[in-house]
Amino acid sequence: MIAVAWGENGKARGVIGAHIVCAEWGDWDGEKYPLLCAKMAQVDGEKIKADVFYTLKNGEFVEAEES
User: Fold this and answer.
1) What pLDDT, on a 0 to 100 scale, did the predictor assign at position 66?
2) Do residues 41 and 47 make contact, with C-beta atoms less than 8 angstroms apart?
3) pLDDT (tens digit per residue) in 2-54
4) E runs forming strands in 6-59
5) Fewer CB within 10 Å of terminal CB in the chain, N or C?
6) Dihedral angle at the C-alpha atoms of 23, 21, 46, 60, nearest 10 degrees?
7) What's the CA gap between 8 and 55, in Å, rounded?
8) Degrees (nearest 5) of the Cα angle 12, 59, 14?
9) Are 56 and 6 spatial neighbours (Cβ–Cβ below 8 Å)?
10) DSSP tag of 30
């Protein structure tokens, strides 16, 4: 199982053993939002917790708010 959050301010979550993929985007440069980073991780229950939303900030996974 894999959850992909590719949009601006995207967030993803999964169950133990699943993978999450998030993208981090820069500010509008007049033509586009530049892709800064994309990263994948496996939900292991320790570093990436099950059923918790994550997003990328400065190239690292951080917990995101559910709303």
Assistant:
1) 81
2) yes
3) 999 999 899 999 999 999 999 999 999 999 999 999 999 999 999 999 999 99
4) 19-25, 35-42, 54-57
5) C
6) -20
7) 10
8) 20
9) no
10) S
d(CA 9, CA 16): 23
* Residue 10 CB neighbours (<10 A): 19
CA-to-CA distance for 25 and 1, rounded, in angstroms? 24
Angstrom distance (rounded) from CA 20 to CA 56: 11
pLDDT for position 56:
97
Structure tokens at 61: 């996974």
Distance (Å, whole) CA 13 – CA 47: 13
The pLDDT of residue 37 is 97
Provide the token pair at 58: 């400065």
Q: Say which residue the tokens 């967030």 belong to.
A: 11
